[in-house]
Amino acid sequence: MTPSNTIAADPIPEPGITPGTGSQQKEPVNVLIVGVGGQGVIMVSKVLARLCQKSGFQVKQSEIHGMAKRGGAVFSHVRFGEQVWSPTIPAGKADILLALEWAEGLRWLRYLNPRKGTFICDTQRIVPPFACRNRKMGAEQTYARETPSVIFERVPNGYAIDASRMAEELGNIRVANTLLLGLLSTALEFSREEWQSVITEFVPPKTRELNRQAFLLGRNWVEKAIQEPGLPSEENTEKVFFDPQARPRIELEITESWCKGCDICVKMCPERCLRLNEGLVAELSDPEACTGCRVCEWLCPDFAIKLHLHPVQGNC
Amino acid sequence: MNEVCEARPMIGNEAIARGAWEAGVKVAAAYPGTPSTEILEYMGSYPSEDLHAQWSTNEKVACDVAIGASFEGVRAMTAMKHVGLNVASDALLSQSYIGVNGGLVLVVCDDPGIHSSQNEQDTRIFCQLAGVPVLEPADAQEALEFVKRAFDLSEQFDTPVVLRSTTRLCHTRSLVRTGERLEREPVGFLEDPQKNVMIPANARRRHPKLLERMNALKQHFDDPEWSRLEKGDPKFGVVTVGPVYTYVKEVLPGATILKLSSSFPLPEKTLREFCESMDRVFVVEELEPVIETAMQSMGLQVEGKELFPRIDEFSPEIVRQGFEKAGLLEVDENREEWEIQPMIRPPVLCAGCPHTTSYMALRALEARVAGDIGCYTLAAVEPLRAIDTTVAMGSSIANALGMAKAGCETKPIVATIGDSTFLHSGIPPLIDAVYNQANITVLLLDNQIVAMTGGQDHPGTGKTLRGEETVRIDYAEMAKACGVKWVRTIDSYDVAAMFKNLREAVDYPGVSMLISNRPCVLDPVKIKGEPLRIDAASCTGCQSCMNLGCPALSWSGEFHEGHNKVRIDPLACIGCTLCAQVCPTDCIRPVLQEAA
After folding, report:
1. Which of B93, B200, B298, B314 has the most CB atoms at less than 10 Å from its CB?
2. Domains (ranges, CATH) in chain B?
3. Residues of B in contact with A139 (CB under 8 A)
């Protein structure tokens, strides 16, 4: 980010989108910070809000508490300027979208100003259990397919950084948010000293030096990224897990005369697709749900269950 | 905390607490509930010489505590979420007849958009029912000021006053200028049985007084100090109130706006005059058409809910779309549509959450489960999917009782209820179940904190709001005293014990109570034990551990026979061992053990 595209809290010329009103309103600067519960989204937004307040701006910072820390998506709107009305940023008006996690960044793209917005994103992927739901053989993880290069073709300014790994190498993955603050600092008109003094207010005294290093690392990364233009490295962008080979037809053979109805297979089946029939013999109650994991086959004390995998022709 | 006359950033809830402190509040009580919880936490940060702040077992108790303090002539406040008012309403609807001695303010926080609730009811309609005025601040600064004005109003008009906030206001941080605390001499108890004792004869005399008071308030709100007229575009006018005002200013900075402070009772004269000078008048209010309907009944022509929805939280976009529909704004073409949809990221039970085992066992048992309000509602979805109903605070036990008495349920009936919810409103239904000899099992999920709202103390933690030691409730003894004969306490992390005891509990004919007992992993202290790791060579990708829904578990990228092998995130894993206990191939072990 060169000084020419730093975002200042000065009036930003907006085409006339508010007919019926005569007044020239100074528009606030909008920074949307998103991530996953526990990553430090709120800390980042508090630092920014405090910095804006110290610099004499009116500032509003809005987030939703509640179930957020239970691994859910977290977002915080920070708006500052001479006059800030709404505590939330209207869609398409975020000057900066700062994402602490890749998929969360993607989720909020429609809030980014399509003409001049800057998208800053940690390429770290936090895969929720929800994305690992399909248990069938060769199942895909449903995270997000888009890679930084795809996204950066469409956003006005984009920066993808492997901040979490850099923070880990520095000594603690938890300073990834401070590292991203270092990146953010180059996009806003506050001095390095101002940033660092406010960050010091918010981090535990023991971690001050580590946070100082993380901040500078993020700040210097930007200069390097500008000197070596081009798309960001995608080495950390993990590919979607997918094994197209393995989609056979599953057959579960149960030898009724060997089954004594002990219920072990029924109780231990991860897909809960077995049951005891009226004659207290195990049967597959939901063939669609069976993934062929073999737990029943291995655990049956009477060798009454056998799994057969039949290759399906034409399924590459 | 107590510096005077400086501006600093505060969330709305902190500003409300500050306003109450400045107003000289002596007693504040609440039951935690998102988004209102922080109000009492901030109250507890003021010196105990200034005020008594406490957690109560439920909202009605808290409201009655505040009412009691008001009887003694001191200023008192209670705070609650919108559905908390349903619980407290019994007290409020009588107290509105009685009035106040010391000022009495109820802060009620609505949750438009249902961020963390079971509905999005509009508190203002409750205020109409109770006949009490409601003030609606637009931002944190106004919240502080309105709390102080609410106390003055309460004493001036001898009425409880409701201050309505919303999730957005509660949790938005903005600059607030603070003032000094007003110390008031206590008035003392006023002996006046005809006013204070609501027997029918007295209540009949008080009801007309309430109506007179509402009339007087209506005229009082016509005073310009209660509404602000912002002159702008003369072609149309906007009537609005609360945080929605900031959205209107955002999208129509030059509009003519009448910003009200209260939506009940309404300043009729002011509204009539405003409408007379305008060709078109719009009412923009979140949730129910309270102002709109009242203005229409005054015979005023207004537009409202046909443009601005009756559901969901408002935003600048929603308000903008309303004015676009009205033809006052051109459709905003300047938006980029992104077809990208990453997987959803719903909240999940934490890694090591002690609720996990309970619901795993309930699903295996194929029980009919009446759930309750708490973090454990997250067990209603896959992969645990073990809750059949969730209604309201404390409903589970009586719901289970009703299911049993319906006489047609073939599955074992189990009520699951958290420790704090049990204390809130689970005890009367437990007694009811014993009294009516129901065959149900109550699974008390005792994680020793109010977890969902961020870790507040309650009578089962043995600590007060200010963290002082106090009496600790013993649930097993309490259940026995209520007549429950089968009571057992087990370790939530012992999967086998949970399965075995739960089966015995449902086999017991009558009310049985199983108490699963492990502290929440987040509060009061964050629990982080040695993480486990998966021996990839032995993992067969059977997904048994994935059935826990633990956020520390995900796929490793390796396969066994086409099945995704699992990995454990060592940062997220707290070492609860649940996954190791359910693993059929025994491939999950502590990292330490491996190193040794």
Report:
1. B314
2. 7-183+192-220 (3.40.50.970), 227-325 (3.40.50.920), 355-517 (3.40.50.970), 532-595 (3.30.70.20)
3. 564
